[in-house]
Amino acid sequence: MKIECIKGVKKPAYAAGAALIAAATLLAGCTAEQTSSSEVSLAGAAQINPDYTERVVEEKYYSIGPGCDPENFRYDVTPYRLTENPFTFFNDKPVDEADFISYAESRFDQITDESSISVRGIYHGYGFEVIRSDMFSEWASENNVHGWSPDYKAMGAIYGDYPNGNDGGAMTEAVFFDTYIDPSGRFLVVTLCEDQKVVCEFFEYGNELEMRVLPEGYDEFCEAYFNGMYGTAEECLEWAKENDVVVVEDMEITSGEDLWYAFYNATRNGEAASILIASYYTLDEEAVSEELYEEEKDSYPVLYFEYIVCDGGPYYDLKIRDCSLETLDCEDSYLSLKHFEVPLSGEYVKGENEVIDAFVLVNSSKATWDDIRNGMISSDSNDYIPNYILFYWTWIFEY
């Protein structure tokens, strides 16, 4: 079995494997009206309900706009994420109002609105809101926040529905808030600031921040093991999980996220860096035809090592090989590493509210998700932009 770097999808011959087929159709599943990176939760930012209009415009509550990318992935916000549903997690244990006000005032550069329930303000140019845990229900009711998505961006978020400006405000769309909790568990913090350094600084309040960095000698490690690690798919998967390797199983990252973001942020800042990815695939009998399953089942599972090198310039050099073979399956260079976050539709989408969060190598520094999608389905070969999907997450929100 040989991997083919075609149409932007890592794809063994005959397109076997549920994850691979899904990846091939995810691009085609986006409607032409849907746009590029980080736009899903921001589409209605300028048309939010009247109570929120002022804070959207003046407080930069929506910290980034369509086409922007989250920043400073080297800083890890994981310790501050709220991983439990706040509608059931918080209890009625009283929070001292003076402690609450003191905490909020110590964090903000400027306070724009203050009540006994929450305090809104500006921190480093971004809008944040601190909410008392014992009054979360009251805050949610006042602000039309009524849902929780545990899968949102792999971190969870609360959301509400607001007019999007169409049909006189009759149409609504979900607006998500990144959701954090202070270490004491007394205060919920919501924001759409996607600069992870700013978020960490908000909680650490002057303490030195820890950064995600690649291990010393990591370039040499990646090169040595890409060229020298051989075995079965199961053996190499186990090895990868125990070592400094990004592990991707059926197109979703399952290990080494810190390594990936350290690499991603370093190369975006013009630094030279390398990364080693172990991409493991299984074959889902329910996702392929019976004939194809019988033909291909003995070839799975399979694992490919992907070795990416960026010398600090614009190009990302990619090499791929089957973990059981010495010969390369693919070698190519790409001009850009892009991060996209867009709503999906189509045959392989799990629900009408599914969203994809994907990292893609592409031969264009300005390509949008729509550009890539349209090039893949266009009958004109000139529209095609060479690209390669490294991995993605999908998440679903429910009303």
What does the model show?
The chain is an alpha+beta fold and 399 residues long. The protein has two domains: 215 residues, no CATH class; 130 residues, no CATH class. The chain has eleven helices and 18 strands. It has a seven-stranded antiparallel sheet. A hairpin with a 7-residue loop joins strand 14 and strand 15. The relative contact order is 0.18.
How would the blueprint of this fold be written?
Layout: E1 3-6, E2 9-12, H1 18-28, H2 50-58, H3 86-89, H4 97-107, E3 110-114, E4 118-123, E5 126-132, H5 136-142, E6 145-149, E7 157-163, E8 172-181, E9 187-191, H6 196-204, H7 218-228, H8 233-242, E10 246-249, E11 252-255, H9 257-268, E12 273-281, H10 290-296, E13 302-310, E14 316-322, E15 330-334, E16 336-343, E17 354-362, H11 369-377, E18 387-396
Parallel strand pairs: 10-12
Antiparallel strand pairs: 1-2, 3-4, 4-5, 5-9, 6-7, 7-8, 8-9, 10-11, 12-13, 13-14, 14-15, 16-17, 17-18
**Ranges with pLDDT <50 over ≥5 residues?**
1-69, 165-171
Structural class: alpha+beta
Helix content: 25-40%
- Report the β-strand fraction as a percent range: 25-35%
Total number of domains? 2
Count of runs of 4 or more consecutive helical residues: 11
Run of helices and strands: EEHHHHEEEHEEEEHHHEEHEHEEEEEHE
Gyration radius, rounded: 23 Å
How many strands, which pairing sense, and closed or not: the largest β-sheet?
7 strands, antiparallel
- Number of strand elements: 18
Q: Which word captures the global form?
A: elongated
What is the multimeric organization of the chains shown? Answer: single chain
Going across the major beta sheet, what is the strand order? Answer: 3-4-5-9-8-7-6
